[in-house]
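Give me the fold.
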Amino acid sequence: MAISSLSLLMLASCKKTDAVITTNGGTAGQLSVSATTLPLDKAKLTDTTTVVKFNITNANYGYAAATTNTLQLDLPGDNWVNPLSITLGVKALSQGYSTIDFNALMLKLGFPTGVATQINARIAYSVGTSVKTIYSNVVNLTVTSFNLTSYVYVPGAYQGWNPATADSLVSITGNGIYTGYINFTAGNLNFKITPAKVFTNSYGATGSTLIYNGGSDIPAPAAGLTQITVDLNAKTIAFAAVTHTYSIIGDATPGGWNADTDLKFDNGTLTWTATLPLTAASGQAFKFKADHAWTLSYGNPATVDGINLAKNGGNISSTVAGTFKVSLNVANGEPATATYTMVKK
């Protein structure tokens, strides 16, 4: 009897401490925003006033879950394939942004500045890898961002040491990191970096370390098209060989499928560009091609101009005739996707 009583006490103890917590899968909360039309004003660059505020309600998992709430922003055509994600603070139910902070997020999304552009916002709720992430309602915003682009210049032997006509390196977001492509010629590898198109102030280097108004001429590693990255925050310079050059080809282009129209790298926009006439007869199309060969190309899918060109994808249908500035945005190397834009002239 004594043993039986002890067993019952042990069983009762186990029942008190071994409660099982289960989730109902979760019901997402709601997202609201203080303003849905945001013409961001560059004149308020240093103003810390909140221009937009995202407010959320908690998700319901049927118990007090430790939920991670993440604000996601994306362009409508991307279908949340690769959203910009901002993890909110613990138990945070709102997130506000000043002009400069929200403009920086818009620049990361990569859409054109100075143009009213629609974006989507939602909240992703997560309680761990074992439970499926759930999402709030989607809020549509129309945002006009502004450009923070800044430049430095690369006068050197390749162009006669003339700062007035030197090629530039660009920082799209004005964060102090500049990049671009320079075509160095044999025997003309030395150059300097200047903040303006004059030699009043310049950067030389010792090894990979930049020296303001000091150091020696900077030597490029070899002749040919070279990617240069200058970090004025860390005072460093780095080089990378440009893997590919690009052209456009197709029966909608002047050369048909037998002759490429070369694209030129634009250090101002970091894109490969050309202005050319395109035709749009039934079935006519084009593609972007690397190195005048078919080993690497970029084509469909392209739901709208500038969205998700696929590596070695299909032909891109030409639907409107006219003269266009075509710009291909593709990272150095062989990325799986690229984007392009067409602006009618």
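The chain has three domains: 31-144, 150-241, 246-344.
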